Amino acid sequence: MTAPITAGFDGTDESRAALSWAAREAVRQGRALRILHAWQVHPDATVDHATQEGWARDAVAAAARETADRHPGLDVVTDSVEGPVVDTLTAAEDLLVLGSRGHGAVVGFLLGSVGQQVLASAAHPVVLVRAGDGAAHEAAGRDIVVGQEGDPEDSAAAMEFAFETAAARGAGVRAVRAWTLPPLFAYSPGSLRLLDEVGGPEPYERKALADAVRPWRERHPKVPVTEHIEMGSAGQVLLAAAGDAQLVVVGRRARRTAVGARIGSVAHGVLHHAPCPVAVVPHA
């Protein structure tokens, strides 16, 4: 049985936007929706534990009723969990949808420490939705943009997510690969030979993108696909392609630092400037 889509909910406007996005996606994919409220006791609160627990439970129940009214037939379940918020959210069994404070395309997504930790630690895709992001981004004709880098297996998880989401929405996929001209010494003899065989760096990059996209084209033959390569930094090229997208999908290779896990620079840049919801997909 397919796991439900989980929407993190805390009553804020951004979490309501995330819940709305998750509900629409659950309807499209024929999946259940789980509304999750992760909370911790406030030690300085003037009310007792039982009262705080009741507030959390009532808030989730009210959100569930509103969602069920908007989407008759959608299977909605609720979960109010007391405990470490990051641990609770990252325990979601599949797609997790979170809200993020935002003030337009220039500022983009404003991630608090919880959001950053969840993105860096989650084992499944996480979608970030800003307050005010409605269904307008999902209008017909808008593609799902997915970034591709490295070998086909490096972006397989992001490609799979993009194509499956596009298939459920009847949308197209725009696969984007950025490339630069590194110093000559960065090429191995084998790489130089391959470049000569395909006629230079640009055809080489075009073939690399086509190879990465091919298995997903074959698996989803009804999904229209556009392949785009461009010289430049990966983050800038991806953002330029995302101007009219309904969703941007980026892979995530988390790295550990002295102050905790951090997502890569491309995902970080897209999250801060994308004009639409962003899906961050951990590498398989």
Automatic annotation (TrEMBL):
<protein>
    <submittedName>
        <fullName>Universal stress protein</fullName>
    </submittedName>
</protein>
<dbReference type="InterPro" id="IPR006016">
    <property type="entry name" value="UspA"/>
</dbReference>
<comment type="similarity">
    <text>Belongs to the universal stress protein A family.</text>
</comment>
<dbReference type="Pfam" id="PF00582">
    <property type="entry name" value="Usp"/>
</dbReference>
<feature type="domain" description="UspA">
    <location>
        <begin position="3"/>
        <end position="130"/>
    </location>
</feature>
<dbReference type="InterPro" id="IPR014729">
    <property type="entry name" value="Rossmann-like_a/b/a_fold"/>
</dbReference>
<dbReference type="InterPro" id="IPR006015">
    <property type="entry name" value="Universal_stress_UspA"/>
</dbReference>
<feature type="domain" description="UspA">
    <location>
        <begin position="143"/>
        <end position="282"/>
    </location>
</feature>
